[in-house]
Structures are given as structure tokens and as C-alpha cells.
Amino acid sequence: MKILLIEDDALLLHGVQKALVQQQYCCDVAQSIKEARRYVLEDYDLIILDLGLPDGDGLTLLKQWRQQGSAQPVLILTARDSLDDRVKGLDLGADDYLIKPFALAELLARIRALMRRRFEKAENVLQFGALRLDMNQNQVWLQEQELTLTRMEYAILRRLMLHAGKTVQRERLQQDLYDWNDEIGSNTLEVYIHHLRRKLGADSIKTVRGEGYRLEAKSE
């Protein structure tokens, strides 16, 4: 499991990194926002974020990540202990907030809890190429950009992603539309497939004549 630790206090940084490595975590470190931005594009299981960084506020970095569609768990580790800071951090998308000074045992316990939640959620997240669909939140991202889909478009895409790379029968997709109890015309499915192609890319969904449709991977 891979963790990014962002902390400007060198002594604390290396102490926490050593403890994480001893727990069999792979841990990269950054001491500034500039360094963190170079790392954060990688696929980390958890980010530990200090707020008082030398080149800016960690909350600004957190806000940018969430606006870009990043769903990586973030644990704020900071000396800021005011209620306002804690509320702001959590509202901006942090998953946990631990105040310095802290007990190492508590930090490790919080990390384990966040990891458990991450992998429980992962079971309901579909990934195919650069496309990601969260069945818990009914959200879709393409190359980390969140897409706005209608409920019908979402229903079709969800079915295609559940069978990504395989042909989904036309009748199965039509049934997903009927499940909304809306009036479905003879060409309704084709209309929504057309809309999805406009949002995902013209070659994203292939028509398999006489059978149905197949989702094609879009490279990162």
C-alpha cells in the first residue's frame, strides 16, 4: 500500500516515514506544495497532509485535488487545533483530521481505518481505461474530469462498464431504461448512446451489429 506524506518538519517527516515503512507501507515524502504536486498524480492509497507548508496552505492543495476529481483519502496532520480549521478541512474533502502532537499508535490506527474504508469503497468503483464510475455516489470521471450524465446515460454506462470490453445485448440495455418507468421509444437507446459518445469520445462505444454495444477503452 502506497502513502504520500506531505510535511515540512524534517524530523517529524522522517520519523513518521520510518514508522510507516516498518508497517510495510511504501511511503513517498514531500516538504512543500511544489513537491507534492509532482507526486500527487501517482496512485496513492492515502495522502497525509500538513497544512502549514512553506510555500502555501495545505487546504488550498486539498481543495484543488477535490475540484480535479481526486478521490484519494486524505488525512490532515497539523498543529492547527481550532474548530474552524477542523470543520474547514473536513468540508473541503479531508477524510480525517489529527492534531499535533499525536501518539504514533493513534496515527497508525487511523491509517488502518482509512485503508479499510478505501478498499470497501473500491468494490463499488468501476474502472476501465481512463474512465471511472462510482456506484456509491453515482459519479463518473474521465481522465479525472467529472462528467455530468443524465440518469438514463448513467444507467447505460453503468451496464457497459459492468461488462467492459464485452458486448452487452441491446435487450439488456433497454431493460435498464425500462427500469426507470419512463416511456421508451424504439430509438431511445440509440439516442442515449449518441449522447454518451459525445461525452466520452466518438470511438468509446462500439456498435456490434445484430447484438448490442461494447465499451472500448480510452487510453489515459
TrEMBL record:
Alphabetical list of InterPro entries matching this protein: CheY-like_superfamily (IPR011006), OmpR/PhoB-type_DNA-bd (IPR001867), Sig_transdc_resp-reg_receiver (IPR001789), WalR-like (IPR039420), WH-like_DNA-bd_sf (IPR036388)
Listed SMART domains: REC (SM00448), Trans_reg_C (SM00862)
Gene3D superfamilies documented for this protein: 3.40.50.2300, 6.10.250.690, Winged helix-like DNA-binding domain superfamily/Winged helix DNA-binding domain
Keywords attached to this entry: DNA-binding, Phosphoprotein, Transcription, Transcription regulation, Two-component regulatory system
Pfam families in the record: Response_reg, Trans_reg_C
Protein known as: Two-component system response regulator BasR
GO cellular component, one term: protein-DNA complex
Modification sites for 4-aspartylphosphate: 50
Cross-referenced PANTHER family: REGULATOR OF RPOS (PTHR48111), TRANSCRIPTIONAL REGULATORY PROTEIN BASR (PTHR48111:SF75)
